[in-house]
Design a protein that fits this description.
Distance between the termini: 16 Å
Largest sheet: 8 strands, mixed
Oligomer: single chain
Helix content: 25-40%
Radius of gyration: 23 Å
Structural class: alpha+beta
């Protein structure tokens, strides 16, 4: 089953980093703090020249999106000292990633928040593939086996809230996230990494001392700062594009009842079938004009994603609704929405282009990457955030070993992390490429071949194997 994650134009966390190189005058400056001593983010910023052992964090995580927050939780749970740097003043209210796959739920269980997430979200037990009003096949998530027989739909803002609260709880009630700070330099030393940081918020009339750079010291640094990662850039790690870009349009709509599909006479191409989707069923409509996907959300909402022929920056919600109606016959009934519902739909509307990428490395001495900073996977498949979480689950014990066992032992652990997770990333990219290919516009012979393939994959024994692949088993 396919499920949209976060659009590639927006990283896990917007950790803006300038192109200032380590070793510049700015990086060497021993300047006053970016913020007053009583302001958020002013605590724990060590000046390198006067730093003591206590001033050096075990791990500095750059980026406080869902991947960075989850890693920080896992590290603090293991007794490591962690500093999280985030350029944004507050978390985004835009819910990019909505799907938590069973392995992701298992990681949340390690932190003791799986049940809270399940209570706040909506389970997806089934996915249905349609074309021209005909049900081509269905995927039962439970056939993959395991403790969690569903994909959990939960808006990213709610996921981040649970992680923030748990992180502060694990950290003795203290939030280790330092906000409005951007990294502008990275220098690796023999025993630690030195991060040069600046305030990402400059008030009108602020003096030079307010915006002067400071330094944060950590034994290891992790880039969780998204697809435009400056940690990756400053570490000199290449960003390799895979495949070509495809444009999509996405928005959330609320409906009083689940949608009915395949019941439109005017299309003239259908085969007369129709059916109403269950509230816990995802829709994958492989239509002639391109894929239409729909996933349930809490509160009677659904996310809709459609393939488009261009990046449609001027689109409005009615445009997306029109594409859905023309391709599937489903009416989204935007006219009956309340003002608050229309505002939420308008705020959720986004256009994005999917282009997959892989970092040439996921570890470089005392620097490691994970999530979108290490691999940008198509959101068509819902793998992005979950793949980052699985990275975090593998990276946390490697970093603990590095901190407690010494750098030589840690270097081996990080190499093992890189080897394992790069294999998983390549598999995820290949699977996402298949998802994108099968959802392309199709007519004539290609349409017949594509639909025949979907029918075969929706039958035993392939259906159970497909369920395992699409719930990220083995990644």
């Amino acid at each position: 089953m396919a499920e949209p994650g976060e659009p590639p134009t927006e990283p896990d966390a917007v950790a803006e980093v300038s192109t200032e190189a380590p070793g510049t005058d700015a990086a060497a400056a021993d300047a006053p703090a970016d913020a007053p001593a009583d302001a958020p983010g002013a605590v724990g910023l060590a000046v390198a020249d006067a730093a003591t052992e206590a001033d050096i964090a075990d791990v500095a995580v750059v980026g406080a999106g869902p991947v960075g927050l989850l890693l920080a939780c896992l590290l603090v749970q293991r007794g490591l000292s962690v500093t999280v740097l985030e350029a944004r003043g507050q978390s985004s209210e835009h819910s990019r990633a909505i799907g938590i796959h069973p392995p992701g739920i298992a990681v949340l269980s390690q932190l003791g928040i799986a049940q809270a997430a399940i209570a706040a979200g909506t389970p997806i037990f089934r996915g249905e593939a349609w074309c021209d009003g005909e049900l081509l096949g269905a995927l039962e998530i439970g056939e993959a086996g395991g403790r969690y027989p569903f994909v959990l739909a939960l808006p990213q803002r709610d996921t981040e809230r649970l992680l923030r609260e748990r992180l502060a709880e694990l950290n003795g009630g203290v939030d280790p996230v330092l906000r409005e700070l951007r990294v502008v330099g990275v220098s690796q030393r023999s025993e630690h990494v030195e991060l040069t940081i600046k305030s990402s918020h400059i008030s009108v009339g602020a003096g030079a001392d307010v915006v002067a750079p400071r330094r944060v010291l950590a034994r290891y640094v992790v880039g969780a700062d998204g697809a435009r990662s400056r940690v990756r850039e400053l570490a000199g790690i290449r960003w390799v594009a895979v495949g070509r870009a495809q444009p999509y349009l996405m928005a959330d709509f609320r409906s009083g009842q689940p949608p009915r599909i395949g019941d439109v006479e005017s299309r003239g191409e259908g085969r007369g079938g129709h059916g109403r989707l269950a509230a816990t069923t995802a829709l994958l409509a492989f239509e002639r004009g391109g894929v239409v996907e729909s996933f349930p959300l809490p509160g009677g909402w659904r996310r809709w994603v459609v393939l488009t022929d261009r990046l449609w920056h001027e689109a409005i919600a009615a445009d997306l609704a029109g594409i859905v109606r023309d391709r599937t016959g489903i009416e989204l009934h935007t006219g009956s929405a309340t003002e608050q519902e229309r505002e939420r739909t308008d705020e959720s509307l986004s256009t994005f282009a999917v282009r997959q990428h892989l970092a040439s490395r996921m570890a470089a001495d005392r620097i490691a990457l994970l999530g979108d900073a290490a691999h940008k996977v198509s959101p068509i498949g819902g793998q992005g955030m979950n793949l980052g979480w699985l990275d975090a689950a593998a990276l946390a014990p490697a970093l603990e070993l590095a901190v407690r066992g010494g750098h030589e032992l840690g270097a081996r652990a990080l190499r093992e992390y890189e080897l394992r997770r790069r294999v998983a990333a390549r598999r995820a990219v290949a699977q996402a490429a298949f998802n994108m290919q099968i959802g392309r516009e199709a007519r004539g012979a290609r349409l017949g071949v594509r639909n025949a393939l979907v029918r075969v994959l929706g039958r035993p024994p392939f259906r159970a194997l497909l369920a395992q692949a699409f719930t990220m088993r083995g990644l």
